[in-house]
Design brief:
The protein is an alpha+beta fold and 126 residues long. It has one domain: ACT domain (Alpha-Beta Plaits, 2-Layer Sandwich). It contains three helices and seven strands. The model is unreliable at 1-8 and 94-117 (pLDDT under 50).
């Protein structure tokens, strides 16, 4: 199946949701819940735990195909309200999937740079 981005909320080939959160054993199921409620199965899910000032942190990226821009934005809003999630970034599919030397399923790395947090070099607001 080949999807194209269209004006007015068309279907996209891929969306990448990047999240940062305090490490918690129940966090991953809570992150996947908005997708499961809609009968969606992500193409890839990647979580990395890192030590940071104030406690362990999780960087999570979820890659999923076939969402409209409207549904992707709604899921991002739901994720931002998830207990334990501190920041959510919804990456533009064309930008994230076209980086040289990167597979679309190779997912990002979390970095804590003081007050600003980064996932694979992309700043996300807390």
């Amino acid at each position: 199946m080949n999807f194209q981005v269209r004006e007015g909320g068309g279907v996209s080939a891929s969306h990448h949701f990047r999240l940062s959160a305090a490490a918690d054993p129940g966090l991953l199921p809570r992150i996947l819940e908005p997708f499961a409620k809609r009968g969606l199965v992500p193409r890839a899910v990647h979580a990395t735990q890192a030590d940071a000032p104030g406690g362990a942190r999780l960087a999570v990226e979820v890659a999923i195909d076939g969402l409209t821009e409207t549904v992707a934005a709604h899921i991002a809003a739901c994720l931002s309200g998830t207990v334990g999630v501190e920041a959510v970034a919804l990456g533009a599919p064309a930008v994230l999937s076209s980086r040289p030397g990167r597979s679309a399923t190779r997912l990002g790395r979390f970095e804590d740079r003081g007050a600003e947090q980064h996932v694979d070099g992309m700043a996300i607001a807390g």
